[in-house]
Amino acid sequence: MKIEKTIILKQNVYRTVSIKEASKIMGKSEQFIRIGLRNKRLPFGVAVKLSSQWTYYISPKLFYEYVGESYNEKLLDID
Question: Which of 21, 41, 47, 52 could form a disulfide with 36 if both were Cys (CB 3.0 to 4.6 A apart)?
């Protein structure tokens, strides 16, 4: 149903890609993703140090474009 898909799409627009998910899709270790974000080598997210811990944000749109997939296709691939 179109209305249900629209609601789901709007909910997913603001979600983040996890480090685990990104490492699986890219075929790299989770540490590779973390260090790449910390050193600003990976252009799809940010790493911020809060006190002694790092926190990460990966933009779904930028990530899927970086790995060569359309973000819109990912959103529409919901069942």
Answer: 41
**The pair of three-digit structure tokens given for residue 42, joined into one six-digit string:** 């990976």
Instruction: Note down the domain range covering 22.
Output: 2-76
Q: The pTM is what?
A: 0.73
Q: How many domains is the chain partitioned into structurally?
A: 1
**Mapping DSSP to helix (H, G, I), strand (E, B) and coil, where does residue 17 land?**
coil
- The pair of structure tokens assigned to 58 is 């990966």
Distance CA 52, CA 1 (A): 47
Residue 1 has pLDDT above 80, yes or no: no
Q: What is the residue-averaged pLDDT of the chain?
A: 82
